[in-house]
Amino acid sequence: MELLVVIAIIAILASMLLPALIRAKGKANQTKCLSNVRQLNMSLQMYIEDHEDFFPPRISGRENWLTSLKPYYVSYSVVKCPSDGFSSNHGFLINGFNDFLLRD
Fold it and tell me: Scanning 5, 73, 86, 89, which has the fewest C-beta atoms within 10 Å of its C-beta?
């Protein structure tokens, strides 16, 4: 009987803790996304400084803003928000929404 009481108390405590953990994970994803946007912004600023105040091409043949800014950030993961709905095998948002934005 005592074991059932202990299990019930643990279950109640876990159910109270779960929403807090979900909120913390959401906040961590939000912070990561904001950090990625900051890194992309800094990459864009460095690109503009190095290329005589010109922005990277939106799309022109094989080179676009994603590949133009690549020397200024570490990996393609900065263009992927951790909480987006795209599958992890894409690695970055070159497909989907950004593909729409990259069209002429």
Answer: 89
Find the length of the chain: 104
What distance in Å separates the CA atoms of residue 66 and residue 59, rounded to the nearest whole number?
9
Of the candidates 39, 68, 37, the one whose C-alpha atom is nearest the C-alpha of residue 54 is 68
Which element (helix H / strand E) includes 4?
helix 2-50
Residue 42 Cα distances to 14, 32, 88, angstroms: 42, 15, 25
Structure token pair of residue 56: 């990277």
Strand partners, 59: 64
**Can you tell me the distance from the alpha carbon of 99 to that of 42, in angstroms, rounded to the nearest whole number?**
22
Per-residue pLDDT tens over the stretch 9-60: 999 999 999 999 999 998 998 899 889 889 989 999 999 999 999 888 877 6
